[in-house]
Amino acid sequence: MVVADLHVHTTNSDGAMELDEVPAAARRAGVDVVAVTDHDRLHPDLHTPVTHADGVTLLHGIELRVDVGPFRVDLLGYGARPTGPLAEAVDRLQRNRIERAREITECVEARLDVSLDVEFTEGVGRPHIARAIEASEADLDYGDAFEELIGNDGPCYVPREVPDFETGVDLLSESCGLVGLAHPFRYDDPEAALELCADLDAVERFYPYGREVDEALLDRAVADHGLVRTGGSDAHDDVLGKAGLDRDDYRRFRDAVDLGV
């Protein structure tokens, strides 16, 4: 039974829930602990590493994309404190996100001869553009938008600025109580991604891939590097608890993370 969903997004990035809607979603799923891990952004309304709201524990987290050379991966920082270097870095990344979203949107509008309703504010990402494409006069749904236009190989794809792996680890280590690798089997080379865990505290062991993955490879990485097991649903909607930690794993996570309180 999932009691801690440690990978959840809000409207602060590309999720569907406002922060004050998270506790109710957690209660519906029977989840006691939620980590808010918005993309490349600290949540402005979470001022401490841990908060309690309506009977639910909220951990301030962040999902930060980093470049390792041949590919990019996502790091999850838990127990985030909005301090100097990380705050400056995410501010810079958000400015780049806005510029990138404008470029992608202009490309799509010119290619499809449509007008898209996209709000160019902090947290904007390709999901916002995909939703706008689906809502426009274009004959494309959300999935088609990625498949045909704005996916990584699409004609309107624009890369965005990300820090290198070492810089990202340093930024998160200074501001967060625990740093781990997100969803290792979403990368083209999961084995190479898991090798990065030698420099991390944790790995996302439980994740709703929707397909079979090599769990033995994950468990070897946990054993080889002494990793804390994390897990979460990567929720961008209001359905929590699709993956996460049971009570025993959450206890081990809680004992390992430094919340600075």
Summarize the structure.
By secondary structure, the protein is an alpha/beta fold. It has helices at residues 22-29, 84-112, 126-135, 142-150, 165-175, 190-195, 215-225, 247-256; strands at 4-8, 33-39, 50-53, 56-67, 72-78, 178-181, 202-206, 228-231. Helix 1 links the parallel strand 1 (4-8) and strand 2 (33-39).
Structural commentary:
It is a single chain. The chain has about 260 residues and is α/β, with parallel strands linked by helices. The protein folds into 2 domains: about 160 residues, Alpha-Beta Barrel (TIM Barrel), CATH 3.20.20; about 60 residues, no CATH class. It contains 8 helices and 8 strands, in the order βαββββααααβαβαβα. Strands 1, 2, 3, 4, 5, 6, 7 and 8 form an 8-stranded mixed β-sheet that branches. Helix 3 crosses helix 4. The chain is globular, with a radius of gyration of 18 Å. The mean pLDDT is about 95.
Query: Which architecture of the largest domain per CATH?
Result: Alpha-Beta Barrel
Sheet with the most strands, sense and barrel status = 8 strands, mixed
Q: With helices defined by DSSP (H or I, 4 residues minimum), what is the helix count?
A: 8
Which blocks of ≥5 consecutive residues have pLDDT under 50?
none
CATH superfamily of the largest domain: Metal-dependent hydrolases
Topology order in helix (H) and strand (E) letters: EHEEEEHHHHEHEHEH
- By CATH, the topology of the largest domain is TIM Barrel
- Report mean pLDDT, rounded to a whole number: 95
Give the overall shape. globular
Tell how many strands the DSSP assignment holds: 8
What would CATH call the class of the largest domain?
A: Alpha Beta
Secondary-structure-derived class: alpha/beta
Number of domain modules: 2
In percent, how much strand structure appears in the residues?
15-25%
Instruction: Specify the helix fraction band.
Output: 25-40%
Tell me the radius of gyration. 18 Å
Distance between the first and last residues' Cα: 28 Å
